[in-house]
Amino acid sequence: MRSAPSAIDRLLKPLHRWIWVDAHRRARKLLRFAETEADGGRDLSRAAELTADPLLRRLYLRHAQDEMRHADLFRARGRALLQRLPHRVAGIDANWIAPGERGLDDLRVEVQGEGTLLAFLHLSEKAAAGRFALYEEVLDCDAETRALFARILEDEAFHMTYTRKQLARLSPRKQGMDLWQARAVRVWKAYLRLAMALASAIGAAVLTAQYFIVLPLFALLARRAANRDPPGFVRTRSAPALESQY
Ligand SMILES: [Fe+2]
Ligand SMILES: [Fe+2]
User: Fold this and answer.
1) Which residues have C-beta within 8 Å of that of residue 116, sequence separation ≥ 6?
2) Closest ligand to the CA of 157
3) What is the pTM of this model?
4) Mean pLDDT within 80-101
C-alpha cells in the first residue's frame, strides 16, 4: 500500500521541488536523513528488547534492520553526490519543511505502553511514506536519488501497515484512543519544532541588524572621539609626572 503526500505537502510541492533541485542541499539532506534513520533503528532495537510479545519483537527487529539499511543507502548516496561537487559553504536546508523519517522522534521507548508506541510509529511511518512519495515525485533532476526513494518507500509502506495491524491486535479496544494521543504528541512536537525554527530565524535577524546598524554607529562615534584627541603622547594635568618609577 502506497501512502499519498499530505494536503499541505501537495500545496508546497513547488517549494519541495526548489529544495531538492540544488545538488549541495540534496546531498546534505540525504546525509541528515541517514542520521535520523539510524537513530530510528536504534530506538526500534531498544523497543525489541523491551517488548514481551515474540511476534512484535521479530517485527521490531526487522524494522530496525530496515532503518539501518536506509541509513546506509542515504549516507552512500549523499557522499557520492558530495564527491562530485565543488566545495561550498552550507546554506539553507529547510529541514522543518522537508524532514526525513522521524521514527520515534525522541519518544522515550522505556516509558511508553505497547499501544502508544505502535500508534506513534504508525503515524510516523505514514507521514514518512507520504513525504518520501512526494520527494520521489519532485526529484526529476536526479534519477538515482529518485530510484533510492522508490526503493525505501516499499519498506516504509510495510512499516506503516504492520504497525497498524499490530496496534489492532495488541490494543483492540484502545486503538482509537492510542492513535489520538499519538496525533496530539506529534502536533505538540511539530509546534515545538516550528517555534524553534522561528526563534532561530528571529535571533539571526536581530543579530544581523545589530551587526549592520548598531556596530557601525559605535565605530562612527569612536572615530569622531579619536579625531578630537591630539596626536602623540599628551601629559594631562591629573596624570602624575613621569619622572620616577613611583
Ligand atoms: Fe526508513
Ligand atoms: Fe520506516
Assistant:
1) 178, 181, 182
2) 2
3) 0.77
4) 75
How remote is the CA of residue 42 from the centroid of ligand 2, in Å? 12
Q: Are 101 and 128 spatial neighbours (Cβ–Cβ below 8 Å)?
A: yes
**pLDDT the model gives residue 7:** 87
The b/e string for 128-148 (b: 16+ C-beta within 10 A; e otherwise) is bbbbbbbbbbbbeebeebbeb
pLDDT in tens, 18-41: 999 999 999 999 999 999 999 999
Q: Which ligand is nearest to the CA of 44?
A: 2
Cα dist from 104 to 24, 66, 121, whole Å: 28, 15, 6
Q: Which residue reads 491486535 in cell numbers?
A: 169
Angle at the Cα of 103 from the Cα atoms of 48 and 74, rounded to 5 degrees: 105
Structural domains of the chain, with CATH: 7-175 (1.20.1260.10)
